[in-house]
Fold Fumarylacetoacetase.
Amino acid sequence: MAKISWLPIPRGSHFSLSNIPFGIITTASSQSPRPAIAIGNQVLDLAVFSSNDGFSALPSIHPYISVFSQPTLNAFAALGRPVHRSVRDYLQDIFMDDTKHPQILKSNTMLQQIALFPLKDVQTHLPMQIGDYTDFYAGLNHAYNVGVMFRGAANALQPNYMHLPVGYHGRASSVVISGTPIRRPWGQILDPKVPIFTQSKKLDFELELGAFVCSANKMGEPIPINEAESFLFGFVLVNDWSSRDVQAWEYVPLGPFNSKNFGTTISAWIVLTDALEPFLGKGLENKTEIQAYLEEARDENVYDINLEVDLTTKSGTTTITRTSSLNLLWSFPQMLAHHSITGCPMQVGDLLASGTISGTEPGTQGSLLEQSQNGKEALKLQGGDERKFLEDGDMVTIRGVCGVDEDALVGFGECIGRIEPSIKL
Amino acid sequence: MAKISWLPIPRGSHFSLSNIPFGIITTASSQSPRPAIAIGNQVLDLAVFSSNDGFSALPSIHPYISVFSQPTLNAFAALGRPVHRSVRDYLQDIFMDDTKHPQILKSNTMLQQIALFPLKDVQTHLPMQIGDYTDFYAGLNHAYNVGVMFRGAANALQPNYMHLPVGYHGRASSVVISGTPIRRPWGQILDPKVPIFTQSKKLDFELELGAFVCSANKMGEPIPINEAESFLFGFVLVNDWSSRDVQAWEYVPLGPFNSKNFGTTISAWIVLTDALEPFLGKGLENKTEIQAYLEEARDENVYDINLEVDLTTKSGTTTITRTSSLNLLWSFPQMLAHHSITGCPMQVGDLLASGTISGTEPGTQGSLLEQSQNGKEALKLQGGDERKFLEDGDMVTIRGVCGVDEDALVGFGECIGRIEPSIKL
Ligand SMILES: [Ca+2]
Ligand SMILES: [Ca+2]
Ligand SMILES: [Mg+2]
Ligand SMILES: [Mg+2]
Ligand code: NI
């Protein structure tokens, strides 16, 4: 049964009472970035809420109340999973029709007036200060599809692929909030045998899921696989924009660099790990025997998030991808255990991305590289447009949502970016 | 002619009056990290110096004087090259025997007593908060030597190598200050056909030069090649510790990851770009025609730093590498222009490393991978030890110094790390 709120929450909202995602906002009345939660079509400003005794009935948070006036969620995240859980539970109660504490907000119209804002009127900002950003490659179907394209079916997957979560360090400074325009990059590409300098002609998106780290391990000390989930604050949608022509020329032998570092977009609202817990399922099967440091006690370790990608061109909007985040070979705890097995120090605010999530059928693939077969076949779009790769002005919108009860969805909202023409050089 | 100081500076000191490198220190009397310069066998505590009117004769710095009480040099770096220059010039004058301002420090024994500490008594800390760390691969001889080893002489260099500064994003959180112990990492390696989980058996060092960024470009706007030098605050020595067996198994197709993220050591004192200016020379010749965005107006764009690596084992200390940082195909301005050509936002505090610097002769190579031919030939060391790769307890010391006048050296001091045994798992 869906929880019932005194606040009107539209059916189908990503931000039901079952969710309570955290973000950073500014408003017309205050340009200071500060924490908030999204609920229905509203946001609750946690800086205003906390400084007006909103947390008076949750004494355990009082020593840490300053986390709600910080410009990022790092300090809140660093308090750890049990604290996130108690704050989320408390805020759920505050918005319940049968709340134990009606005086705090339900019957406190003065506080409602200063602490609740329409979602459409707030500006969202990067929710965390990101120390390091790592992009994995755990989407088996994507890795396979791309491998077939470049090496044939027999050698599609590299020998290491089933043994370890392949990943690479990304560019943290290039991570931007949903809505930020993405400029088409310049770069070197092969045309066809000699390198030329040009605007990228194969600009692509990648549909990914991201996780923020909320605890640090000591340098030199790996995070054990069965403790790794407690290091995960929450999740966002990720669009790992990719320049395929730049990537093809640059990536041997040290991996993608310029093809990825011009921008990576994340959705604004961090869905807490606890909110996703009910949606755990089995990821893709791995028949390979894996090393003990990667073996999780539990069987269901990957989230079942319904993912969609819309491509908007001048001619209209087409949903070009529908898939599930179950299409991962490795879980986030496995990624974290592998990342730190060397003793690599993970820090509060680090972002891990899953790698491109694709299904196996047409219309389930999380990149244009796969959908257009590297530019061989054009996608037919609403209104008559066709696309092999992204053109200037195109907008990519990723959505993700868990659940079937329209009154109890746990969703991410949208992760949006529009392509701007290259800068004149 | 060497500049003469009223402070006794030993002949052969890396920290002559011609240098004035900046770092972050704590002392027994104060555990607050704060800026300092190294001079001879002493350091000048800039927090104490500035709060006792040490900068009274440099009015232009007064609006920014708080940068000298910060726990990192980021705020000072962000003031820009002209300010670094004026502060360095001023501090040089303060220590000159014929200083224009003797009352500030030369004849102010009270301030000398509270602001000067013996170098051996201070603890150094990471000088910058590092946002992103990028490791390039600009050491042509290293790339060639390694390529010959794995692919033969005909295919030693990848097709892109002479066309662009190959690089990859590294792990910023793993960068540590000289002296920090480095734990031998665990990881997956091929043995010989199936992956096993083990302590790395091929632990190596990499001799590199690093640069810190002091200005930010706007996202989407490349840094023009001939402005790039003004984005470089200064330089440090870098040891990019590498696990060769982990690297060999993991690195296809997305590049090195766990093989590098367990630790990267930098030297403590940042030698300002201005201090290195007199030591510019020609790097390695590139006969390939390069794209205009990489073409520098000047011909001499690489520093001539004499580099040495000592390997200390139980049996003694052996200098195993002697080379020059002229052994680079690409300059740091070229790396920065390439890094940002996509619009990648560079930020104050970013660290760029050169890639391994090797000469062409035996005894000039900047890694054990090259010196032992990937473990085929053991190096003979002082006192009878032999090494193919690093063993537990081994210590690697990198030194770098410019110039021949023993009274006017511009040096980096040392970049040191000792290998600790793997953690028990
Ligand atoms: Ca990706
Ligand atoms: Ca390196
Ligand atoms: Mg990206
Ligand atoms: Mg390293
Ligand atoms: Ni002289």
